[in-house]
Every structure is written in structure tokens, then in C-alpha cells.
Amino acid sequence: MRPRPLPGSLPTFGDHEPLLEDVLRDPIIHCLMACDGIEMGAMEALILTTQRRLQ
After folding, report:
1. Is the dihedral of CA 36, 28, 30, 46 positive or negative?
2. Nearest-CA neighbor of 16 among 1, 5, 2?
3. Cα-Cα-Cα-Cα dihedral of 10, 12, 15, 17, to 10°?
4. What pTM was computed for the model?
5. Rounded Cα–Cα distance for residues 7 and 12 (Å)
6. Mean pLDDT in residue range 36-43
7. CA distance 4 to 26
8. What's the confidence (pLDDT) of residue 51?
9. What is the dihedral of CA 21, 11, 55, 45, to 10 degrees?
């Protein structure tokens, strides 16, 4: 999948929004989630539930 361009007023990384899978692989995100007591399995379950509801 190719990153989708965003309007210039939104925070971006270069000229695109990072893919969710890339964000979730970021070690900083893992640290932030750990500090907040969020487990990756719970996050993945939430994402899957949300994706199904949006279809």
C-alpha cells in the first residue's frame, strides 16, 4: 500500500501520513503504550473491531 497524501494543514511525515502498521512497530509507541498500561494485543483487538464496524 502506498501512503496517502494529506492536506498541508495536518501534521505529516514528509508528504504522507505513516501507515498504522508502521506506527505500531515504532519502539517509541511501544514505550508510550507500556507507560499507559496498554498491551499490544488489546490495541490490535480494538483496531480489528473498529475496522469491522467501518466496513
Report:
1. positive
2. 5
3. -100
4. 0.64
5. 9
6. 96
7. 19
8. 94
9. 40
What the block records as the C-alpha cell of 53 is 464496524
As beta bridge partners, residue 13 has 16
Which of 24, 1, 28, 23 has the alpha carbon at shortest distance from 13?
23
Residue type, 8: G
Longest Cα–Cα distance of the chain, Å, equals: 33
Query: Could you give the residue ranges of the DSSP H alpha helices within the chain?
Result: 20-25, 27-35, 40-54
- CA–CA dist 55, 21 (Å, integer): 19
Euclidean distance between CA atoms 5 and 36, whole angstroms: 30
